[in-house]
Write a structure and sequence with these properties.
Length: about 200
């Protein structure tokens, strides 16, 4: 690559270093898929087609500079909605990428169908808890905790369906932001409800 050192700028130097470092050999490419893919049998057409696309796309991968093109090509595959490089370690020659599948494919999973039934029942319980809030502080704690738990489950769903998106990134943190206070409030709702005098409210 012929260059004029007297005219080199910061961006030029960066591009030269990148070109040199990206010539290092590729040792490993880690691909992260939605968890529900593992639940599918190996012969399932979605799983088989996805793995075949990965094998074909990565079969000729030899240098780190080729990773961006390979991941971009995977993003154009039939079942993949988004492919994004998450990390490249030039020292070890290891790169990582996250693949997001079409949301409609996730809906075909038996696990997601069961999750839909569970979430519907959870919403129904949350709605019913609102009618009990006038019966005392324990019911208020339980209702708030239940709705925080619903928020946690929504984050879990986003993390499984769109892990490579901004929503998936928030969900990884949000699920714990909702889960911890939900467990505390639900636990408190089951404790004896005493007044400041130490006499149960029911007896006052």
């Amino acid at each position: 690559m012929p260059v004029n050192c007297l005219e080199l700028g910061e961006e030029d130097v960066t591009e030269i270093l990148k070109a040199v470092l990206y010539e290092f050999p590729m040792q490993e490419l880690d691909l992260y898929l939605p968890p529900w893919v593992d639940a599918l049998p190996a012969e399932h057409p979605i799983k088989a087609g996805l793995y075949d696309a990965v094998r074909q796309g990565t079969g000729q991968l030899r240098h780190i500079r080729e990773v961006e093109g390979v991941i971009a090509a995977l993003g154009e595959s039939e079942h993949i909605s988004e492919a994004r490089i998450s990390a490249i370690d030039l020292g070890t020659g290891v790169a990582a990428a996250a693949l997001a599948l079409l949301q409609a494919l996730g809906a075909l999973s038996p696990l997601n169908a069961l999750s839909g039934v569970y979430f519907t029942q959870l919403l129904a319980n949350g709605a019913e808890s609102l009618t009990l809030r006038r019966q005392g502080r324990p019911y208020i704690f339980f209702s708030i905790g239940l709705f925080l738990f619903i928020g946690c489950d929504i984050c879990v769903g986003l993390h499984n369906l769109v892990p490579a998106s901004a929503a998936g990134a928030f969900a990884r943190v949000g699920m714990w932001m909702f889960y911890l206070p939900a467990q505390v409030l639900i636990t408190l709702s089951g404790l004896p409800n005493f007044s400041t005098r130490g006499v149960p409210i029911e007896d006052q």
